[in-house]
């Protein structure tokens, strides 16, 4: 509440966007016409939905899902929908599709990739997720691309590259996000796909930092900085930026972004931590019980964990992320870790965390 901010000497300005930044003058211009001077500045402006350049998309009504207002609007529309189409089979689109199915709508998911949840899970895990959706009545079109959108009596008509047409009374566009960077033009702060930062989240200007979904930071598995738009990375980056801005001597350089995603669907769950790619020379250990739908895959490089992925398998994603970041040699416990990642992960944490 307002008293919280007052007690902590924080001025909270809701509903006011950042319009422009002048890093030479140390000033920020807000959308309401006011200007703020700063000694140190943190940019944590997040992302917006990425809208694909499909011909006709500006002629139809569609939903996105990024903010609370988006969620409330979508919830109201879901209650009325009978024929829904979801563009994109990432986690946001899949969550929305499940709610549409449960509300009784006929749901079609259209995805350009050849599998669901690409970038999070491999094909075996994706097939398990897909089976759960088709068992509940959803229709899934992978390897499909929308080439035209136009209004129809139902709401929107979609034409696919193969000539097939779909009708939708509710269209959800869930095709990714893009960092909010418009205010940076002419600012003097360097950016690429996101705001370029060093290992303490400092930008190209010495008194400006950036963190979260708008920051393009070190990636743990790549020499090229990346935008890693997930909550764990945003939390860690924000913590480091705050320490750096406060001059905290205990700060440690950012280890790099490690993908970490958990996903619950139709009473089941899936989790992915780390790199989904198995580089040359890596060791891949898997186990799969078709009767229970339990699947686990772990990727090791030189005895060190590079990625672990499971469907209906329980393990602590945070612990697995730390095993990766700390580059722990797991050669002696690899088999045990794959057999029982929850128990062995906690053992390793209790024995080695300092």
TrEMBL record:
Tagged with keyword DNA-binding: no
Taxonomy, superkingdom: Bacteria
Name this polypeptide is given: NAD(P)-binding protein
Signal peptide: none
Keywords per UniProt: FAD, Flavoprotein
Names of the cofactor(s): FAD
Gene3D superfamilies, sorted: FAD/NAD(P)-binding domain
Entry-linked InterPro entries: FAD-bd_OxRdtase, FAD/NAD-bd_sf, FAD/NAD-binding_dom, PadH
Entry-linked Pfam families: Pyr_redox_2
Ranges of residues in domain FAD/NAD(P)-binding: 19-220
Family per record: Belongs to the FAD-dependent oxidoreductase family.
């Amino acid at each position: 509440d307002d008293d919280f901010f007052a007690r902590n000497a924080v001025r909270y300005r809701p509903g006011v966007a950042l319009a422009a930044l002048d890093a030479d003058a140390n000033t920020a211009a807000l959308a309401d016409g006011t200007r703020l001077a700063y000694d140190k500045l943190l940019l944590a402006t997040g992302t917006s939905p990425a809208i694909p350049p499909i011909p006709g998309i500006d002629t139809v009504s569609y939903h996105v899902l990024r903010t609370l207002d988006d969620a409330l609007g979508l919830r109201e529309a879901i209650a009325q929908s009978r024929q829904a189409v979801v563009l994109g089979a990432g986690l946001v689109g899949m969550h929305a599709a499940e709610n549409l199915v449960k509300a009784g709508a006929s749901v079609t998911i259209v995805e350009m990739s050849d599998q669901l949840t690409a970038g999070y899970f491999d094909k075996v895990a994706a097939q398990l997720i897909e089976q759960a959706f088709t068992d509940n009545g959803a229709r899934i079109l992978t390897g499909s691309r929308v080439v035209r959108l136009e209004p129809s009596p139902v709401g929107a008509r979609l034409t696919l590259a193969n000539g097939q047409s779909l009708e939708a009374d509710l269209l959800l566009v869930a095709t990714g996000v893009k960092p909010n960077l418009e205010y940076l033009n002419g600012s003097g702060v360097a950016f690429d796909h996101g705001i370029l930062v060093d290992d303490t989240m400092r930008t190209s200007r010495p008194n400006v930092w950036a963190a979260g979904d708008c920051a393009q930071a070190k990636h743990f598995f790549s020499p090229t900085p990346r935008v890693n738009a997930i909550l764990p990375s945003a939390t860690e980056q924000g913590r480091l930026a705050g320490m750096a801005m406060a001059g905290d001597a205990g700060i440690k350089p950012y280890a790099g972004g490690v993908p970490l995603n958990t996903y619950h669907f139709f009473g089941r769950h899936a989790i992915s931590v780390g790199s989904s790619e198995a580089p040359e020379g890596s060791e891949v250990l898997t186990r799969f019980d078709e009767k229970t739908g339990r699947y686990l895959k772990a990727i090791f490089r030189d005895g060190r964990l590079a990625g672990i992925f499971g469907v209906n398998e329980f393990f602590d994603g945070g612990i697995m992320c730390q095993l990766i970041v700390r580059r722990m040699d797991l050669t002696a416990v690899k088999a045990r870790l794959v057999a029982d990642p929850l128990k062995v992960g906690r053992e390793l944490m209790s024995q080695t965390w300092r």
